Amino acid sequence: MKALTFLGANTIKYQEVAKPIIKKPTDVVGKILWTTICGSDLHILKGDVPESIAKANEQKGRGLILGHEGVIKVESVGSAVTKFKQGDVAIVSCISSCGSCYYCKKDLQSHCSNTEGTSGWILGHEIDGTQADYVRIPYADNSLYKAPENVPAESLLMLSDILPTAYEVGVLSGKVKEGDTVAIVGLGPVGLSALLTCKTLKPAKIIAIDMDDARLEVALRLGADEAMNPGKVDAKAQVHALTKSDIRESGVDVAIECVGIPATFEMCQDLIGPGGAIANVGVHGKSVSLKLEELWIKNISISTGLVSAYSTSDLLQKVVSGDLDPSVLATHHFKMSEMEKAYEVFKNAASNKAIKMVIENDN
Ligand SMILES: [Zn+2]
Ligand SMILES: [Zn+2]
């Protein structure tokens, strides 16, 4: 079969590799129908993820197959798999989890103690992933979701990672409630997913903040009430002016950080109002400053996290009922054989106005 392999920092190759087989009774092997590329794949490609470098080095020239998002058609099932059979179409979760360990029982599947790696995120990170003709999914009963008919690939793909990530780590951890005012800082694929999933909880106002006007335009089109570019306006002053009222102090109820740099985390601290919550989704590479001297007296809570994908079924239900339409995030279509080209486009996502790529198997 063909696969997109990671050979080491800044090196990927679309090449012929052996097709995966069932290794454990809880495995499923499926044919990839559609897959996509994530910001995390670019982190790995840059050489920022040591586990993936180690895996690539274990098999020189063959490397590690990237990708943790996709939709498969089940081809073979292990003897202990009960929920899936040959021919089923299923969404691959970015988190593979056993469903029975200490952490899985607490809905912290991201820390599953029984995976083949260091966390629940193993696909395309520590074991071969979804950017290939076929993939092996460990603990398939807990790590795949049956795809309902009539839901397009463009929507199914978003349920692998970006929707549950934005919803769990941003919207649910931030405890967004009906009537809240929410600021979303950073409107890339995950920020836009936070916007879409946040809207299902009916906040009064969503304020989108990004340095890129094109992304702000998309946010407004997808339902943001206000859009601000802090490179052009004083976002802090504008947010406080917008949220002032006779009965309460200014500031947002929830600030969702979807960038992962010190400046945007700092901005969230500047925007938050009394009793508010800062939900950090962005992946940080550096320490940030924490204004505890200002936050404590405002009763601010701060949350962080890696997705556990416990919300995937709920989100799928929202898609089926029409409350949520994530297909709007699909901006580019490629064939699997054009994978290397798709990476080039996604690497320059801003200039290509790329949000998510839909990559279809050629066969
Ligand atoms: Zn991802
Ligand atoms: Zn587990």
Automatic annotation (TrEMBL):
Q: Which CDD domains match?
A: FDH_like_ADH2 (cd08286)
Q: Which Gene3D superfamilies match?
A: Medium-chain alcohol dehydrogenases, catalytic domain, NAD(P)-binding Rossmann-like Domain
What SUPFAM superfamilies does this protein map onto? GroES-like (SSF50129), NAD(P)-binding Rossmann-fold domains (SSF51735)
Query: Can you give the residue ranges of the Alcohol dehydrogenase-like C-terminal domain?
Result: 189-309
The protein's required cofactor(s) are namely: Zn(2+)
- List the InterPro entries: ADH-like_C, ADH-like_N, GroES-like_sf, NAD(P)-bd_dom_sf
Q: Name one GO molecular function term.
A: metal ion binding
List the transmembrane segments.
none
Q: Which domain of life is it from?
A: Eukaryota
Does the UniProt entry include the keyword Transport?
no
* Domain Alcohol dehydrogenase-like N-terminal residue range list: 25-148
Q: Does the keyword Metal-binding apply?
A: yes
Q: Please provide the record's keywords in A-Z order.
A: Metal-binding, Zinc
Q: Which family does it belong to?
A: Belongs to the zinc-containing alcohol dehydrogenase family.
Would you tell me the protein name for this molecule?
Enoyl reductase (ER) domain-containing protein
Organism name? [Candida] arabinofermentans NRRL YB-2248
